[in-house]
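Can't attach files on this board, so I'm pasting raw text. These are the components:
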Amino acid sequence: MKQDDRQTDENILFVGIDLGTSRSSISASNSTREWTESYVGWPKDFIAMQVVGKPVLFGAEALANRLSLDLCRPLEHGVIKEGISRNEEAVKDIIKHLIELAKPAEGQKIHAVVGVPADTLKVNKLAIRRAVSEAVDSLMVVTEPFAVAYGLNLLNNSLVIDIGAGTTDFCIMHGTIPTEDDQKTILTAGDYVDDQLFSYLVEKYPSARFNKNMVRQFKEQYSFVKDMAEDIQVEIPVNGKLVPHDIKNEIKRACESIMPALTETTIEMIARFDPEFQIKIKNHIVLAGGGSLIRGIREYLQDALKEYGQCNVTCVEDPLFAGSDGALKLAKDMPAKYWEPL
Amino acid sequence: MLLTYNKKRNHRIRQNILRGVYEDNLKIIGKGPEVIYKHRYYVPKRFLLPVVLSFLVIVLQSNFASAPFLPEKQPVSGPRSMPVLALNADESEGPSHYKAFISTPGMPISRIFGLGVRTIMIDPGHGGNDTGTKGQNGTKEKDIALDIAKRLRDRLKKSGNFNILMTRDQDVTVPLNRRVEMAKLSRADLFISVHLNYLPSRPINMIETYYFGPSSDPKVLKLAEKENADSSYSISDFKDIIGKIGETMKLQESKEFAASIQKKLFMNSRKENGNVYNFGVKRAPFVVLLGVDVPAVLAEVSCLSNSEEEVQLNTEQHREHIARYLELGILDYLNKGDVTYEARRQTDR
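---
Top answer:
Structure tokens for the assembled complex are below.
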């Protein structure tokens, strides 16, 4: 991209935002990179307001005070529920919060590219724009896997699989902006693993007391597929006393529960592509999103695809910021004239 | 050398992508192509004056050659009197415009040519001896498909704009070739076949919509084989019919129609049940779709192998909802390109 095609005004801060179901991150042209869990909480009543001391809380802080808050995860299942203004409000607040974290200079204009789960963009494009546009001066919305692909320069003959919390998004890049046909979303993702793990643990340890949040933390700390040598023991209260529990098998089962759909959809996406280019795509499969941190997932998928021929699966280096970094790259590369009407 | 070529190619791809992102976002906010073209065809002002002047000279010398203010030019007759700017037939914009016009995405042919859809034929899958699939609790596909089809008929009839026909409105066996004949004889303009799926290997709920076309997916072929049973068509009949696939317009239209049905059905179903899977729009060699000459789709509106879904399908409310989503899909397809409808749809979002 020629430098003179880009927006060079120093009075503009370019930001790339990855608005995820579980975590949201921002990368800015002033080199700031920040993230927050995609939770927003508002005090339930006056007393709660006194306790938490703020009108709105975000991320870990909101989770820690959840008993005093109306807690909202606005992109649960990957979409803003239509007609639920609270969810739109939550998206607005998250964006505002992220932009504050990026520390724009006073009077600086914000030009933002926001990556959202692919289904969100299909279903409620306008709702997303409505929720985000108040906080920025000019805005473009793209799908998360596309932002990742752009950031990694995977513009042609590649498949990006973004394993998020609410959805797993597949996006084939073939030298143009991907259409709806080039993208597919399935609902077997991080939240599905949480649900599975929760039910396996309830079944195995009926007297243990734990909640979904604890289960999510177990998953994030210990997730793996295939094999792992060390044991996994966590402390869970039983009758008020912390007792060590072995959860290795349950973690493995829960994490592997998403693999059949993931493998099947990967094969389907490759198979629907032009046969001449299928080999190239198979050698450029990239896993992104929090799910790419599951230990052994790359090898698992590569093994599963082996019977369809040679393939190469890699994971992005920094899944937390891969989406926002890609969105920032898009924002910076975007010619100035394209920002004007948006 | 190769490095430079790759660099240039990459640069071009990147520019196309950036423009694509921009155009997509313009569409979201409802801004028209004029905003896009304003930038795309930007011409520096310094080039504008010579171009305009040259154009005027050409036009004046040809079209107005006999005008009194250009006395030095002798009047000409015959072909030479044709405007200079007119192109030869094969160079003219006619055919390419025509192609672009026909392939306007999302615009039904009926609307392009101002044709109305008067008769819609609804085909409830199976019936009589042919029960179709069966849920674990004994729910039969033929019964649910018929009920949903009747509800869809009633809903479409209410609008008063269509003549609605059904291939069966009772629990009777109707061979597939008979269904095709009925659609042809009644001169139906649109054909929709209502079915329910069954996935023995995976107890999930899913929605998919088919239009006619070859498929290499063994699962799809197996489903087609199942749905094509009792078609009463012989191989030679089938060959004859396949010969008609050249009618690409029907295929294109069926694909558009299928996309509208799938979109409305899935999006709305998922609002009620987050666990429904979108299996998308697919091609499959279903006889019932091939034989009909007009846009035709086969919608697998739900999945009986999912026990929770089976329970839901036994409630009136759920069946009514499915019928409503099918109606929305049909109207969405028929109204694509209608300015008033599109505007209303934008505000409804």
